[in-house]
From TrEMBL:
Similarity remark: Belongs to the RecF family.
GO BP: DNA replication; DNA synthesis involved in DNA repair; double-strand break repair; SOS response
Calcium found in the keyword field: no
Domain RecF/RecN/SMC N-terminal stretches: 3-351
UniProt xrefs under InterPro entries: DNA-binding_RecF (IPR001238), DNA-binding_RecF_CS (IPR018078), P-loop_NTPase (IPR027417), RecF/RecN/SMC_N (IPR003395), RecF_2 (IPR042174)
Protein name: DNA replication and repair protein RecF
Function: The RecF protein is involved in DNA metabolism; it is required for DNA replication and normal SOS inducibility. RecF binds preferentially to single-stranded, linear DNA. It also seems to bind ATP.
Length: 369
């Protein structure tokens, strides 16, 4: 899959931008705060209909303008189409092949991207919500049904939470109604959990050997999708729904007392181990970077296995942080297969052969040279 062309209007510090991307490697270089990451953000927006660094779409509109427009020309292994997003004060419009997509879930994933940005360094040691977001982002792109399930789960969760809160305030509740909400929550929640367990297993299978190679055959990476409570054992895969049902049955009063849903995939976590030690506790900066890099590389193969097409790889400021050996391994995995767009303040920190065949684009004050 490739993005051949990108057009921006009133997007961040770009009044107007038209840019072609190399089939292989495109390098966006320039001083800090010139607009390199903004270009990657625009591509990410075409893929997931949201930014990777803000939840407020309006922030992406150029100051003092009332709309922003992003258009990309996409080529996949058997089609060619434009994607378009318009942001304005009313919200956003997403078009696939010139046609408005009423449901964003139908738009998301038409373009697949894997982004590796400095924010991802938080995945290993940051809060569980970041790891859930990591899972949701990747699963959402490749499995539209997962995304619908997840939205459904959050819709029911919200409804159930507000009912529990109300029950606490009134000091009374309708057990039948709560049971209906609980059943719906358990059903949607189990589907989300099952998708995530499967994804983590598949990801581990591919990431483990990559990580072993990247760590110079020193570190064995393993990962586990973990329930927020020891009362539910995800190893017993066929019994997840039953276990959750039991758990909610025995927790009704506590949930009402606290006015909130206490269990479910919105509280789960993804745990990384290196040589059976908890990475969250002891992994060094370099080890964390190696974990993330192997996850991202593994995702490339995982997407390929599903779509028979590689996603576009976006590397924000990360290549120059890797030592030469890791840069080399990374490039050897993607060369000739994966369209890659990377940003760096200075090309001098990048020591790869492929530099010769890449297109190097200078970014300066919201213009490309
Ligand atoms: N809504 C907006 N309207 C106008 N300019 C904006 C808007 N949002 C951000 N900017 C400008 O965009 C610039 C930052 O762009 P970006 O994050 O792409 O920089 P960068 O080249 O990646 O820098 P670095 O090397 O530091 O990561 C800043 O100058 C900022 O003021
Ligand atoms: Mg940047």
């Amino acid at each position: 899959m490739k993005i051949e062309h990108l057009n921006l209007t009133n997007f961040r510090n770009y009044k107007e931008l038209s840019i072609d991307f190399h089939d292989g490697l495109t390098i966006l270089t320039g001083e800090n705060a010139q607009g390199k990451t903004n270009i990657l953000e625009a591509i990410f927006l075409l893929s997931l209909a949201k930014s990777h660094r803000t939840n407020h779409d309006q922030e992406m509109i150029t100051w003092n303008e009332d709309y922003a427009k992003v258009v990309g020309q996409i080529t996949t292994k058997n089609s060619h189409f434009p994607l378009e997003i318009i942001l304005n004060s009313k919200g956003k419009i997403a078009k696939y092949n010139y046609i408005d997509q009423k449901r964003l879930s139908q738009f998301i994933g038409k373009l697949n991207v894997i982004l590796f940005s400095p924010e991802d360094m938080q995945i290993v040691k940051g809060s569980p919500s970041l790891r859930r977001k990591f899972l949701d982002t990747e699963l959402g792109q490749t499995h539209p049904i997962y995304l619908q399930n997840l939205l459904e789960y959050h819709r029911i969760l919200k409804q159930r939470n507000s009912y529990l809160k109300q029950a606490r305030e009134k000091n009374s509740h309708d057990p039948v109604y709560l049971e209906i909400l609980t059943d719906q929550l358990v059903e949607a929640g189990s589907r989300v959990i099952n998708y995530r367990i499967e994804f983590v297993k598949n990801l581990e299978k591919i990431a483990q050997p990559l990580h072993y190679e990247l760590s110079n055959e020193r570190d064995l990476l393993s990962m586990v999708y973990k329930s927020s409570t020891s009362k539910v054992d995800y190893e017993k895969k066929d019994l997840i729904e039953d276990q959750l049902e039991e758990l909610f049955k025995s927790s009704t009063q506590r949930e009402i007392d606290q006015g909130i849903t206490l269990y479910g995939p919105h509280r789960d976590d993804l745990i990384f181990y290196i040589n059976d030690n908890l990475a969250q506790q002891f992994a060094s900066q370099g080890q964390q970077r190696t974990i993330i890099l192997s996850l991202k590389l593994a995702e490339l193969d995982l997407v390929y296995a599903i779509d028979q097409d590689y996603p576009v790889l976006l590397l924000d400021d990360v290549l120059s942080e890797l030592d030469d050996r890791r840069q080399f391994i990374l490039m050897s995995k993607i060369e000739g297969k994966v369209q890659t767009i990377l940003t760096t303040a200075s090309v001098e920190n990048i020591h790869i052969q492929e530099l010769k065949n890449s297109s190097i684009i200078q970014v300066k004050k919201g213009k490309v040279l």
